[in-house]
Amino acid sequence: MGCSVWAVGNYAGWGDRFSAVGTRLVAEVGVEGFDVLDVATGHGPTAIAAARAGGRVTGLDITPELLAIARRRAHEAGVRVDWVEADMTAMPFPDRSFDRVLSTFGAMAAPDHRGMATELVRLCRPGGVIASTAWSLDSVYSKIGGIVGGLLAGDDEDDAEPGPMPTDWADPDAVRSIFAGLPVTVETVARTVTVRWPSIEALIDVLPEFGPLAGAVEALRAAGTWDAARTALAEMLAAESSSSTELVAEVPYAVTIATR
Ligand SMILES: C[S@@+](CC[C@H](N)C(=O)[O-])C[C@H]1O[C@@H](n2cnc3c(N)ncnc32)[C@H](O)[C@@H]1O
Description:
Layout: H1 4-7, H2 11-15, H3 20-29, E1 35-39, H4 45-52, E2 56-61, H5 64-77, E3 81-85, E4 98-104, H6 113-123, E5 124-135, H7 140-153, H8 172-179, E6 185-197, H9 200-206, H10 211-223, H11 226-240, E7 247-259
Parallel strand pairs: 1-2, 1-4, 2-3, 4-5
Antiparallel strand pairs: 5-7, 6-7
Helix pairs in contact: 3-4, 7-10, 7-11
The protein binds S-adenosylmethionine.
């Protein structure tokens, strides 16, 4: 299978800076003694937090390179997780297999939001909980994507049809319509997580190696606009940071809790 874009660079190093989100999510929904699925587990931070908290955990992802890191980390932590390489849009489990269906910054990226929500609900037992997180539109991560994507789109930007966005999963109205008609009650809660980097340059320097953006950065380089992007990114990040030495950002995200 494989999903090469997420295997490029060091996603685990990137994601470790906000792994507190998964730990907090696990504490919020409670997993002890429950069958737990972590959808798009990546390098496994949320799955491993759930296993530490006493869940019987399965972590699913499409990228074998990240699952290998997850497997190693679970072993080092002394916890058991079943790791499954599969596509989250059609998961290889029977209906109603799990009491908790979690996803930190994973399900939000499915191209078909409604189809993804239906799949999450399918796997959740009655009385169980689906809990998913997504970056808000005004988060530093959305702004990075906006700057890079905006420069890449150039003059064509106005012609582009806006499709479903991962940030829809952080918009309470959009979330309500994504889950409309499914047998769940849905609540969306706004949160922030503190993310630290040694410096603004340290973050910008990894972007050419960051899987989902690597191709865009390469295209900007080819077009001679990567330096302009770096300048715009540095200005935006300086405005976001509460520190003048490191980069310290309070990053907004939303938690969607759907109770079946
Ligand atoms: C932003 S990362 C989130 C990883 C982890 N949950 C975290 O909190 O850091 C997105 C993950 O989605 C996975 N992914 C993308 N498309 C997928 C698909 N169709 N099926 C399963 N996993 C997918 C990627 O491999 C990557 O691990």
